[in-house]
Automatic annotation (TrEMBL):
InterPro entries: Integral_membrane_TerC, Integral_membrane_TerC_rswitch. It is found in: Membrane. GO terms for cellular component: membrane. The chain crosses the membrane at residues 6-25, 37-59, 91-117, 129-151, 157-174, 220-243, 249-270, 282-301, 307-328. It comes from Caulifigura coniformis. It is a multi-pass membrane protein. Belongs to the TerC family. This is Inner membrane protein alx. The keyword Transmembrane applies. Keywords: Membrane, Transmembrane, Transmembrane helix.
Length: 363
């Protein structure tokens, strides 16, 4: 009952903040300014960091209980065993999970920017797209986290599966070239068009529009569906990565939710600046590989990396990627050479994005 109340309290708080966001502060469609985006980014990051103290209290007081693996010396021999999760380590695991998930969300932002540009979403409607996209992500990720943590607790060998999956994801990200969105070829557009005619015109904030007595799907609805699908694909990488740090479902879920809820405001703050962080993708590759190796070592009993060290490594990898990117960009600007993009720049302004044809062939 106690655990149920804690979960209910967290979900109620998140529901209140989301309702406050859309129902009060963003009730009317409008273009999100950089100042507003930075303000909301600061709000969500502050709440996420403050929640570290809540996690510490919940586990330190025994209101929530978990276990962690530690390495001890018994009669000169190295022994690994499960011990109760302390409040301090629970807080460190939550913080590491949040930083990891938040950093992986940055690559998600770039793909979302491509989708929004491809559909030429009006600036005033972009916040609505991200709101509904993130809201759906909360539900899908909750189900994936519940399933993932349950699998590992029931079948220890799933640690190997998740570890290999992360190594494969790192390799796939490393080998990936320039990303493009071909709207007409996406599964979402093809499936929707089988059941509904699709209009190329936006109708304000409406997902459906009546045209000559026939209900049509608007590009706004298609955009939301694609954003949802994109998040599910990214979750296949990010959720196993956080589970690699801990199998405590409350910590995995809360760190994930705070990260993706801050994704909307972070998008408006960074979408036009992604070309400045050229080495961040390389840092994410190293990050996924590190967590994958960590999971395999832990599952095989060959080694255990304490959470404090893991957090330091994660922070160090990200800091290196960001600093290297900023230094390289500054040097090129100073030399007057400009920045040679590793990926094409797609501004958030829908007028600059490529045209999209989502006409219905059957209509």
């Amino acid at each position: 009952m106690q655990t149920f109340l804690i979960w209910s309290g967290f979900l109620t708080f998140i529901a209140f903040m989301v309702a406050l966001d859309l129902g009060v502060f963003h009730r009317k469609s409008h273009t999100i300014s950089m100042k507003e985006a930075l303000k909301w980014t600061l709000i969500w990051v502050t709440m996420a960091l403050a929640f570290t103290g809540v996690v510490y209290y919940l586990y330190d007081s025994g209101l929530l209980q978990g276990t962690e693996r530690v390495v001890q010396r018994v009669e000169g021999k190295r022994v690994e065993k499960e011990v109760p999760l302390s409040g301090m380590n629970a807080a460190l695991v939550y913080l590491a999970g949040y930083v990891l998930e938040y950093s992986l969300s940055v690559d998600n932002i770039f793909v979302i920017a491509l989708i929004i540009a491809a559909f030429r979403v009006p600036p005033a409607e972009q916040h609505r797209v991200l709101f509904w996209g993130v809201l759906g992500a909360v539900v899908f990720r909750g189900l994936m986290i519940a399933g993932g943590t349950a699998l590992i607790k029931e079948f220890h060998w799933m640690m190997y599966v998740f570890g290999v999956l992360l190594l494969y994801s790192a390799w796939k990200m490393f080998k990936a070239g320039e990303e493009e969105i071909e709207v007409e070829k996406t599964l979402v557009v093809r499936m929707v068009r089988k059941f509904y005619p699709v209009t190329t015109q936006y109708h304000g904030s409406q997902f459906f529009a009546e045209i000559n007595g026939v209900r049509h799907v608007t590009p706004l609805f298609l955009t939301i569906l694609l954003v949802e699908g994109t998040d599910v694909m990214f979750a296949l990488d990010s959720i196993p990565a956080v589970i690699g740090l801990t199998q405590e479902s409350f910590i995995v879920f809360t760190s994930n939710i705070f990260a993706i809820l801050g994704l909307r405001s972070l998008y408006f703050a960074l979408a036009g600046l992604m070309d400045k962080f050229r080495y961040l993708k390389t840092a994410l590759v190293v990050l996924l590989a590190f967590i994958g190796i960590k999971m395999i070592l832990q599952a095989s009993g060959l080694g255990h990396i304490p959470i404090g060290i893991s957090l330091g490594i994660i922070a160090g990898i990200l800091a290196t990627g960001v600093v290297a990117s900023l230094v390289a960009s500054a040097r090129e600007d100073a030399a007057g050479e400009g920045h040679l993009d590793h990926r094409p720049h797609h501004p958030v302004n829908p007028g600059a994005g490529p045209s999209v044809d989502v006409h219905d062939e059957d209509a």
